[in-house]
Amino acid sequence: MVNLGLRRVEDSVAAKHPALQQYAACQSHAFMKGIGAFLAGSGAAFAVQKLVNKKLPYGLQWSLLLAGATGSLASYVVTRAETQKCSDFWIYLETGKSPQELAMAGRVSQPAENLPSPEDGESVAAPVRRNKYGDVVE
What are the C-alpha distances in Å from 117 to residues 26, 66, 120? Predict the structure, then answer.
């Protein structure tokens, strides 16, 4: 068993994914950035509301509600962006290619479903017919 944060991961999983520790560290960093964004966003929104409160007075509960909502939105945006970076990093560590490279490779080379493979040997399957929607027609 390998420790990964507070969880223990099976040795077979850790051996299959050697970059698991780096990915977990990246995710942890992303979540900490999200917490920081929540605190900074809430504090900044509350401070701005206190300055504006002199011209537009409203209750403290509304200031706190708006500050919390602003902090939550900031936290979501930052955490989502950082988590996407971690996912891209994970794909790079596992495949050696960036997600953009994999997407481009996927568009260029289409799977050849109807072509016989070398493993088939003598048995060649009949070509598969498809309708205009891509469904297999018998």
Answer: 41, 62, 6
pLDDT at residue 47 in the model: 92
What dihedral do alpha carbons 96, 98, 100, 105 form, nearest 10°?
0
Q: Which two tokens stand for residue 25?
A: 């560290």
pLDDT at 115: 45
Question: What's the CA gap between 84 and 48, in Å, rounded?
Answer: 30
Q: How many other C-beta atoms lie within 10 A of the C-beta of residue 28?
A: 12
Q: Which residues of the chain have pLDDT under 70?
A: 1-7, 9, 106-126
Q: What are the phi and psi torsion angles at 11 (to 5°)? A: -60, -35
- Would you state the structure tokens that stand for residue 29, as one six-digit string? 């960093």
CB contact at 8 A, 48 and 108: no
Where does 53-111 have alpha helices with state H?
Answer: 60-95, 99-108
Report the C-alpha gap between 105 and 113 in whole angstroms: 17
Query: What is the model's pLDDT at position 23?
Result: 84
